[in-house]
Specification:
This protein is of the alpha/beta class and about 270 residues long. It contains nine helices and ten strands. Strand 4 (about 60-65) and strand 5 (about 65-70) form a beta hairpin.
Length: about 270
């Protein structure tokens, strides 16, 4: 479990004339389960990519445990991307490779150039991968090609792949957006279990209000790149959402609930 806070100070990202993320300052405490909500184009995905350093900020900074993340280069940056694991909406797996190999790819940041090129993994790493698959109820699929799995299974493989990175923070960018309710529940339950059992800080972008309320200790609502709300699920009432997003925004959130699942997050 990481004892370090993640600190965002004046974080800004512009694309041409558009402020995708504008002057965001937050402190994410260790072990929190944080949901980031907002309508499409609110800046949620850009925010997570800034934290993982998949893109660089136009202004402001990110720090973790006193380390300036926005200043990292080369090997130190690759290590940060391993420490700050990212789960994508579209799974980011290699369809033609089996599930076990896809999970082991999460270990490549810990390898030198040559062993990365040959994908030469140790027995210890293979054991780590099997243990991660076991946590996600996917051991029977270990030797199946990833492309043959359902969307929900592929997303759980992606979580197992993130787990073997042995990260200090886990980011998930709309991980249930393309899943049916049953698979969405399995994925959210898996993230909640990792958060509570491992004490891992989890930040997840969500398009559905009820899912955020059910699972997250803390909810951050964004609009037009700005943070409009930062508080607990209980504080994020329909009235607050209506004030932030208007009636149409509230309707959009509530309608989206029918396409995903919301199950209470139980802490250990």
């Amino acid at each position: 479990m990481s004892q370090h806070a993640l600190t965002l100070s004046g974080l800004t990202k512009t694309f041409g004339d558009t402020n995708a993320v504008h002057n965001v300052s937050l402190e994410i405490e260790p072990g929190q389960f944080v949901g980031v909500i907002g309508r499409s184009g609110a800046g949620k995905s850009t925010l997570l990519r800034l934290l993982n350093r998949l893109i660089d900020p136009s202004d402001g900074s990110v720090s973790f445990g006193g380390q300036e993340i926005t200043a990292l280069r080369g090997r130190a940056l690759r290590q940060w991307r391993a420490d700050c694991a990212m789960i994508f909406q579209q799974f980011n797996l290699v369809d033609r490779l089996d599930v076990l190999t896809n999970v082991l790819i999460g270990r490549l940041a810990h390898h030198g150039f040559l062993s990365s090129m040959t994908m030469n993994f140790s027995d210890v790493e293979r054991t780590m991968a099997i243990q991660a698959l076991d946590r996600l109820d996917l051991v029977p699929q270990a030797l199946q090609r990833a492309g043959t799995l359902s969307g929900g299974q592929q997303q759980r493989v992606a979580i197992a792949k993130a787990l073997v990175q042995q990260p200090r923070i886990m980011l998930a960018d709309e991980p249930i957006a393309s899943l049916d309710p049953a698979n969405a529940t399995k994925v959210m339950d898996a993230l909640a279990a990792i958060n509570s059992e491992d004490g891992l800080t989890v930040l997840v972008n969500l398009h559905t209000l009820d899912t955020a309320r059910a699972y997250c200790d803390r909810i951050i609502a964004m609009r037009a790149g700005r943070v409009m709300f930062d508080g607990t699920a209980a504080q994020l009432t329909d009235g607050v959402v209506r004030d932030i997003y208007g009636t149409e925004g509230l309707m959009e959130f509530n309608e989206a609930v029918t396409s995903t699942a919301a199950r209470p997050h139980v802490t250990a």
